[in-house]
Amino acid sequence: MIITKEQFKKDFEKKMLKLYAQEVEDSTVHMQYFTLGYLMKEYISEGWAKTTNRYTKYGEKQVYYFSIEFLLGRLLASNLLNLGIRNTVSDALKDMGLSLKEIEDVEVDPGLGNGGLGRLAACFMDSMASSGIPGNGNGIRYKYGLFQQKIVDGYQVELPENWLRDDNVWEIRKSDKAVKVKFYGDAWMKPREDGSLEPIHTDYQEVLAVPYDTALVGYENKTVNTLRLWNAEVPNYTDDIQGELNFNKVLLNKREIESISEVLYPDDSHHEGRVLRLKQEYFFVSAGLQSIVAQHKDAGHPLSELHNYVAVHINDTHPAVAIPELMRILMDEEGMEWAEAWHITQNTMSYTNHTIMSEALEKWQIDLFKELLPRIYLIIGEIDRRFREILSSKFGEDQNQIEKMAIISGGYVRMAHLCIHGTHSVNGVAKLHTELLKSQELRDFYMLYPYKFNNKTNGITHRRWLMLANPELSDLLDETIGNSWRRNPQDLKLFKKYKRDPEIQKKVEQIKRNNKEKLAAYIKEKNGIIVDPNSIFDVHVKRLHAYKRQLLNALHILHQYHEILENPNFEMLPKTYIFAAKAAPGYYFAKEIIKFINALAEQINNDPRVEDRIKIVFLENYSVTLAEQIIPASEVSEQISTTTKEASGTSNMKFMMNGAVTLATLDGANVEILEEVGHPNIVIFGMTEKEVLNYYRNGGYNSREIYESDARVKRVLDSLTNGFIKGIQVEGQDIFKNLIDYNDEFFVLKDFDSYVAAQKKMEDLYRDRFTWNKMSIENISSSGVFSSDVTVMQYASGVWDTRIIER
Ligand code: CJB
């Protein structure tokens, strides 16, 4: 949009007066935030209405991205950026004596996601709008987002995240679009006179699903898409009395009903088998599909054509009940026959798998499922029966094979199997991950449906992760290669020609230095630790999970500490190791690792013998907003998961785009990062995929042998249990047990030696400023393919079959 400074000032003053009956000069920064937020919403609304109308009028095929998490991050800055008015607004506010930065800092970060999966959904929303793809999000409006993490005495403590305490300026409640979702009751098929069967569902509990819509503003284009999040409420029974209602019963139900959208489950890559979680899943799926079908009918399109107007994307298996739910709507409510409904359903739905780890694969106990969703269970039963027929025709009498692949088997409903059978497309999130799905985890399904499998490597929005997070680097890019990269991120490769240019190298280094100073100030303020901006900033930020191996990093630091104590003249470049990570509240071992890192920090940071060669910082409450501060200041990006375990990773891409050099195993999208930057510009270590798979399949790994044969490992592990590290006790013993007695499931010790060497290599590279700056520039300029704009275009053409409306 185009607006002058003068016009904006007038609008802002008027809005302030209207909202608060106050002049700007007497306002608080809190008032300024809400004034600006509501004004933005007004600016956005015209384009929003126009986009919605355009989609309906031209019958555009629309994508609905169903996800149980959307980890959006703050919206004010990104909306200003995408509207193209951030500079104008900033200047105008400055004229009025106000600071845009301070105002932006008032916004709460809505943490409606755990980590990679939820953040990916948010990046896709931004990229779809910015690429002119008619795309909508569909999810849950959790009252409490992911818990706030405090570190108390080195331990993680969880506090509720009440992000809606103040107004959420971005959402619009659409009460008139509310729908009802049915749980519990009895469901059966009643024979009709003509011999056909009528589905009956009685005695159910009704929950009102009320949508809250948020605008998703495209970057300097005319597209404003919609994120619809559903709130669970008690229906207004006076409108619709069904038989006799006991008011007390209604009140008793209130808490139970409202709990559906109360809180986000804090588990990452781990299946939570509680009934409330299944309720959440069916709740937002049923509400979303009901509203989609209603909209489709309102627009006058035939239901038989639904798949030509609508694509529903199932983000991991959490929304898998979308498959039977669409069948239910088409058959029970619209009177369609099974065969046609199935054809439409399969052609409407597509599915992304985000992990191969078995503990994350969703399966529901039959009894629990049947009780909560009796009608849906009947439909899944029929899907399973028909699927078994297909399997029988292929595998004949091989019952084992049929049970292995069935949807309902062994007392469980297996959601991934339902997703593969019930959709037309199944994708992994990086090349290696997709290959592992095809050759290992989902091999049988790949043999059955080879045409459904495809890869879509993840991406990140370069608008949030470069333009907003690193304005200085963005300006330098504009000065050198022009600003086309902002619209076409692959143009970042134009920057490659400056990799040897001493002046540009110096500027890149200076920008990094400035970002490091800002982060150092933040660290001082939050943790009271003084870190040297001249030291190497080596960063490991992501969820705390054994497979992500924060432990390997920490053990290496402990090793360096021993080296210094043993040899006071030990030569190393000063290093600042930065961690940030939340552990799932019930994940005991992950919490012990947090305590271990903090104890190590306390001891090393305060040991005068270290002479500040090592500093360790654990920043609490990792979030999108914190990531925006940490990543641009990072130099070494730790991506050290056990090979085969990290499906893709996405922070790896954000670091690279900001000029950090990756220290990586050949896992997930690290493989593709290597392909892009080439061996000289990344440091690779650790076991190969084949070695890992071989050990998992055939055994033969003995971590104790390493402990006994490698003196460095012995020294490090012994110091976990012999009182050397003052702040830990049981934690050290548990870590020792995990690594030695339980044989180190994630090969921490197996990779220790090559990790130490890789760290050393990184340090040597850093010493040579020319080489390092060249590597940094290579990384920045190779990162464009990892923009999620590229990814969503691949989904649009390869999976969803949607048109790009305008850019
Ligand atoms: N992932 O964040 C989650 N949660 C899960 O339950 C399963 C997977 C992550 O998804 C990201 C987006 O695809 C991946 O980059 C990451 O490797 C994976 O762990």
TrEMBL record:
The modification N6-(pyridoxal phosphate)lysine is found at residue 654. Keywords: Allosteric enzyme, Carbohydrate metabolism, Cytoplasm, Glycosyltransferase, Pyridoxal phosphate, Transferase. It is found in: Cytoplasm. NCBIfam families: P_ylase. It catalyses: [(1->4)-alpha-D-glucosyl](n) + phosphate = [(1->4)-alpha-D-glucosyl](n-1) + alpha-D-glucose 1-phosphate. Coiled coil: none annotated. This is Alpha-1,4 glucan phosphorylase. It is an enzyme of class 2 (transferase). The keyword Glycosyltransferase applies. Allosteric enzyme that catalyzes the rate-limiting step in glycogen catabolism, the phosphorolytic cleavage of glycogen to produce glucose-1-phosphate, and plays a central role in maintaining cellular and organismal glucose homeostasis. Phosphorylase is an important allosteric enzyme in carbohydrate metabolism. Enzymes from different sources differ in their regulatory mechanisms and in their natural substrates. However, all known phosphorylases share catalytic and structural properties. The lineage of its organism: Bacteria, Bacillati, Bacillota, Clostridia, Eubacteriales. Its EC number is 2.4.1.1. GO terms for molecular function: glycogen phosphorylase activity; pyridoxal phosphate binding. The keyword Transferase applies. Its cofactor is pyridoxal 5'-phosphate. PROSITE patterns: PHOSPHORYLASE (PS00102). Gene3D superfamilies: Glycogen Phosphorylase B.
